[in-house]
Amino acid sequence: MAKSSTRLLPAALIAIAVALLGWQLWRARAPEPSRPPDPAPAADKAPAADEIPDTADAPAQTERKIEPSRGPAYRNPQLADLKQRADSGDSRAACELGVDLLRCVDLTPAEQVLANAEANSRTQMPAEQRAYHERTVGRARQLLAECRNAPEDAWHQGNHYLRQAALAGEPEAMYRYARGDSVLADYSRMATPEFDRWRAEAGNMLQLSFEAGYLPSVFDLMVAYSDNSSPIAGLIPNDPTKARAMRLLVGRLAGKNADPPEPRYAALEPAAAALAAQWQRDYFPAVKPPLQRLPRIMPGGFATLFAEDNAGPPCSQP
């Protein structure tokens, strides 16, 4: 196990360095969140079919503008079926298709699992750990096999269908798209039109996911209102009242009292408490406290490899 860990250390350090560099480059390009973008100059031609304005009711206005993605027929029958349904207007199928395609964009984790499989197989480990290792190896092989039949432009099509589902109001798709599951998959897409469009849409899309009662968005919004520690957080203006209200909301959903506020924010407590109660009433009436834990959603490829056995398929929320 020590040898395996030693092999993984350089790769982990490189991955961290790449992520930090990407984050710094993004921060250099990102606009100030509190300053609206300058109006776009008038164009001589109509906007592309899937370009949208950054408005609160974007899903209702733009769903009809999304056109089927063009390209060769899919070789994977399951993906082909999802594509046919998505192109016919099935937003749940579009969400699932987008997630499935984006799993195939970066297969490095699966390849690393298989690269270390032989060494790990010779290492002494408890039976439970051995079973987990073998299950992960099996998942890695399955993921690589499925992605051999993915379209060559898996990223473009994955982004297209995930965004299509988000614009149609699918809560998980709105959350995944806002979080950057497509444009931030490996920090290599920051010079693309898709990235710029995501920056214009992401903050509003995360808010819409929250208002749809999608629990994973609570944590991301709590962080976004508190600081600028992630790309999506950098697009949402900090708001100490809303940040505190999110913490109080988590406490209410978990059936626990939140930690006391910082002294400098004590005066905000009445407004934050009222806001948390309103959010619980308006957006999470079906959630019965106490929640044992707030659900978290892994990006597609990591979920395929490391999700718990009882985790449901993507985009399967009611």
Automatic annotation (TrEMBL):
Species of the source: Lysobacter firmicutimachus
Name this protein carries in UniProt: Sel1 repeat family protein
Bias (Low complexity) ranges: 41-50
Top-level taxonomy: Bacteria, Pseudomonadati, Pseudomonadota, Gammaproteobacteria, Lysobacterales
Location of region: Disordered: 30-88
